[in-house]
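Customer ticket, subject: "Can you confirm the structure for Major facilitator superfamily (MFS) profile domain-containing protein?"

Message body: Hello, I'm evaluating your service for our small team and ran a test protein. I'd like someone to confirm that this is what the system normally returns, since I don't have a reference to compare against.
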Amino acid sequence: MPQQNPEAPQEAGNTVSAPVTAATSTVLTSPLDHILIFGHGWFQRLVLFCSTLAFFTTVLQAAAINSLARPADHWCRPPAEYAHVPAEIWRNTSVPLEADGVTRHKCLRYEPPLPSGEEPGVEERSTIPCDAGWDFEVDAASIIKEWNIVCERDWIMTALIAAYMLGGVIAAPFSGIAADRIGRRPVLCIWTFLLMFAGIGVAFAKTLIAFAALRALLSAAAAGVVVTSTVVLFEVTDTQHRALFCSVAEAGGSLLASVYQAVVLGMVYDWKAVQIVCMVPTCCLILGVYLMEESPCWLLAVLKMRRAENVLSWAARVNNADPNDFKHRLSALRVELKRQQEQQQDPGSSDIFLGPQDVRVTELVRNQSLRHRSLLIFGCWFVAFAIYYKLLTGHVMRSNHGARLALLLLKLPGTIVNVIIIKYAGRRRTLSLSMITMAPVAGALAIGHTVRAPGYFLAALVVVWMLVFDLFAVTLFILTAELYPTVVRGAGLAFSYTCGRVGAFIAPFLNEIHSSDMKGLMYAVAAALLLFFGVMALALPETTELQPANTMHDFAAEKWQLQSPLRVARKGSKRKRAKGGQSTSREQPNRTGSEEQDAR
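Agent reply: Thanks for trying us out. I re-ran your input and got the following:
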């Protein structure tokens, strides 16, 4: 049986036989675009709204710990027998000074607390840790005061941040797998409900354990919502708008969260009120998810034809698509899907192309092409997000108001520039460029900590790194979704996001490194890893040259078109060896045959 030319995306019986190369100016038509026959309009904007809110919630809740745990001035509480001593006298006579000779110590007191002689300045007294707890400034209303997270108990803050990140690590893989098995919308509804439950519950937590557990559940729900909503947005947006919409969702959500935190949360000081205020915009997500429909791409990928047609018809009405044109395109889509089903059932290709019922998350490991790209993408997620959350929860972003203001003011123009770069430079080059740019900045941080550079210099480097990270994050979300076919896209993005959350999980422990030399070493290692993965990212396919596949059939038949440097070189050498009379179509069986081995 002759091999069918996989170079040509087909649409309703029309076949384009011209080969597609890296230098072509033709915009390729995605298998997803064949399905999106309902036009572009309010249907996609509704999904964009939900996805933007999902990113907004994820970024805001992660950064909210800085507002929930605002530093509070504190000192040792008097033991019971000295409770009658006025607070001002106690602080002036019983609390020693810091090394600067001005600030009162926060974690030590004198023993005995009060001088016994007539000349207190001459008497020698020892210092001991606070043994009766701590007193706080009157207007302090953070979790620091609520549960005494100070002095020898400050490790609790590290544990709280780690527990929050761990929730996302555990939940994200299950979200992706479930979204690929039972659908995007059911998973999104479940996680949205848990998000509201946990978010509101945090504000009413009475114990530290309850607070930590609800924050972990909140993180899990936020991870599930952002992964699933991103997949839906990706799948319902056509090639022309996909990069823009995904960029707006990620960058816009992050920008709005930063503005909301600085403007709104900056005016709220009670930690319970802070949490409630964080949840107010999230309530809009309930309405958005209720109005959303299932991804038609997923429905067709798993052969749920009748429901897919219902969703396509509803989307066409929402977008005010021309009814006659929609009916014609729907009829053509039925013919194309029937042809693909017959091809998959052909005994000659059954061992090459997997049906939807045969696809499992293990395809990420079993399929050679998916396995290689997953390893690279996972590494990029882990390294960059570990550094990002280390800086986000570190000393500079928690205490330097100038750095936070500069980052906030530069985010909007940075977002506009990011969208332009992604559109014209391509995904692979943008990803590589951003990581290679972050590497020397991390190297400068390493040198700065080693030589004890001024704080303003280190703060400036942190702001620069965070701005470049915005470009990296937007590109990474888009590229990751494009690398996987619809039937495993949820799992692929979810496991990638999990690797990023694993990096975020270790970030609070990195913040426990206080030695300047060790900080310098840490940033040096980070710079080396960023440079390594930035260079290796060039081996990933340039997905602007081949649009996303819907099934493993599409993926296996067209993945040879993915233009990584190695494939371009291999293709070039083949063309040089080819005789002048050879046609491109005669080379295709060899390409297809090599890819059949990968698919097996």
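A couple of notes from the result: Residues 208-236 form the longest helix (29 residues). The longest strand covers residues 108-111. Feel free to reply with more questions.
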